[in-house]
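Reviewers of the previous submission asked for a worked example of the structure-prediction workflow described in the proposal, so we include one complete record here. The input consisted solely of the amino acid sequence. No template or homolog information was supplied to the procedure at any stage.
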Amino acid sequence: MAKIDLEKVTKRFGEFVAVQDFSMNIRDGEFVVLVGPSGCGKTTTLRMIAGLEDISSGTIYIDGERVNDMAPKDRDVAMVFQSYALYPHMSVFDNMAFSLKLRRFAEPSGEGTVRWQRLPRVEVDRRVRAAAKQLGIEDQLSKKPAQLSGGQRQRVALGRAIVRSPKAFLFDEPLSNLDAKLRVAMRAELAKLHQTLGSTMVYVTHDQAEAMTLGDRVVVMDKAVIQQVDEPQTLYDHPRNQFVAGFIGSPAMNFLDASVVAQDDGMFLDFGPFRLRVPEDLSSHVRPHTEKTFVFGIRPEDIYDRLFAQMMRPDSTVTARVEVKEPMGADLFLYLKAGELTIHARMGPSTKAEVGDTLDLYFDMGKMHLFEKGTGLVII
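From that input alone, the workflow returned the following structure tokens.
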């Protein structure tokens, strides 16, 4: 295991800034996921940790040792790529053993001299077979990559990294080439692998479901900059800005422009076609912003069919017309219109709404978010 520390790491390609002032302390044995849209800088950050990209400025430490100028082979990290990068003419065993056969270790030979030795064959065999058993591919060792399924090839790529017993594992979207069902299965395999090995792992993905299910902590990036670093549930419940709120969660959070209005009986948000009451415990946060316009956010799963809502308040209810209906089995996704405003709701299948129907929606205003227009910074 190893801790990885990044201090104001920046990468420029000419005038283009790919990663800007990335600072983070990754703890021993932690599973950290970098997530964000394409081009946000997450893969470039991973490649700088591995030594495959030079650093424009800043410092990277692995286990307390500065590695800025250290060759990739000397950093003792193993990288698993999006493409499996297996040798097609080699068997699974030879693919997994290849790096071990090349590795040399120092052995004292007397009078202060050192002799570099290859790893004994018996040790290579032991490591490969142990990793293959752990990954459930011990019966595939004699096959060539072309004879394997996509999931099996990914397991071979993982096994090739495991046998090295590196200080840290670096994963660059390793599941993106798999079909949806296999991705879910492999996510579980990676989670179990981390629990078994207890190794430091840094994982890059654009899939927020992978980030939320795998990461001890998740780094959300956009336009080369870290937007938020937190545990998955904290990201979901308490996003720091509108970008994080919209990126984490599926379907995405609803965003509607609203102005803050004070009335004799409390604080309200005015959306034009309707108004919603601000809960008492949030009123003190909203009151200083009376008459200002903000971006209101609420997740689709926090909008309910009025018929099934408990502890409902009439002033938290909106009437809307169903535009699109997407039955998902356990869930029902509805796209609705209230005036000119579009609202996405995630409900249970017991809601019997058809396209063209009007539906009374209950907003759980205790789960609302407010963001500044322009900056996107969170108010509530």
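The chain has a mean pLDDT of 92. We consider this example representative of the routine output the project will generate in years two and three.
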